[in-house]
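During the second half of the funding period, the structural biology subgroup turned its attention to how the target accommodates small molecules. The most pressing case was adenosine-5'-diphosphate, which had performed well in the primary screen but for which no bound structure existed. We therefore specified the complex as follows and requested a full 3D prediction, including the ligand pose.
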Amino acid sequence: MPKLMKKSTARTLAALLAAAFLFACACVPEREKRTATFFDYFDTVITLVSYSDKAAFDEAAAAAEEIFSSLNKLFDIYHEYDNVVNLAAVNRMAGERTEVDPAIAELVSAGKEYFELTRGAVNIAMGAVLRLWHDARINAEEDPEHASLPDEAALAEAAKHCSIDDVIVEGNTVLLRDPEMSLDVGAIAKGYAADRVAEKLGEMGVSFMLNCGGAVLTNGKKPGGEDWIAGIADPAAAGEGFAAKVAVDSAALSTSGSYLRSFTVDGKTYGHIIDPATLRPAEGTASVSVLCVGISAMTADALSTACFVLGAGIGGELIEGVEGASALFVLPSGEKIASGGFPER
Ligand code: ADP
Ligand code: MG
């Protein structure tokens, strides 16, 4: 979501993504590689790579940007826009049924299903709690000297207003039954957007690799029939080096890690993925990447966030139970644990 992103964070993200794509495409010099990069959507860096001819690529990039731009407004929980009923408006109108764009209804319904699938580890109804951590992180970025953690009592109070059962989707309406609750779709929105863009580019007949801030999706092959290869950044060396590389063959790969969005208080680092069980940042995993074959990028996005919360043990079990999904956990020690037959190269 377009909350404030520190310039250094944006640069690090851009460097990481650029490195991943350079790496992905280094082996095929014959046809010209084309890249489009978008900085203005979902508070992240989005890169589209393809070897199609210039006219087709320009058309594909324009179509992709249009979708990202409109979904970014719809799914924004921090700002409202003229003539758009977005999630910020749904949150503001908590307690009342709101007519929404079908994309919002679809995303929120999916969010309810992911709560079940992930055993509550991903809860889009946790907006009240997530907001407190988000504000603490933004304050820390703006004024690191005075960084502080959210107030314990405020967290406990917010946690009373996070019931997924109070999120009701009927047709193209959403009702948040608890007036004190709010939605935060940060764990799944980029995956949803990547799926929608991929669908459109597929219809246009373009082979591509899309990286929407860590949700990577490919369609078709590179020239010469080679697979697209994604690099999984080494969480211990932001911007340099890879923990692994993996072929993403008409599949989705989502990575969740807290190394890009975190803040420090009294020498301890706090990430942006919150464990609903403790109301504190999940610890124990440096990054987790989930590969989904025949499943959406949104599901990969939900599963990677869930695995980050649950850790390699329970998260690994979750992955084993999802047909088409596999995962690579990178621990803070650098140790890697694969689940479900993750095809690391
Ligand atoms: P990123 O946005 O960095 O790619 P994720 O897909 O893992 O990473 O989503 C993290 C975002 O999801 C957070 O910024 C926050 O908005 C939201 N979030 C954090 N923890 C949870 C959780 N347990 N359940 C649902 N959403 C969460
Ligand atoms: Mg996610």
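Two results from this model are relevant to the next phase. Residues 1-5 have pLDDT under 50 and may be disordered. The domain at 7-52+207-338 is CATH 3.10.520.10 (T-fold).
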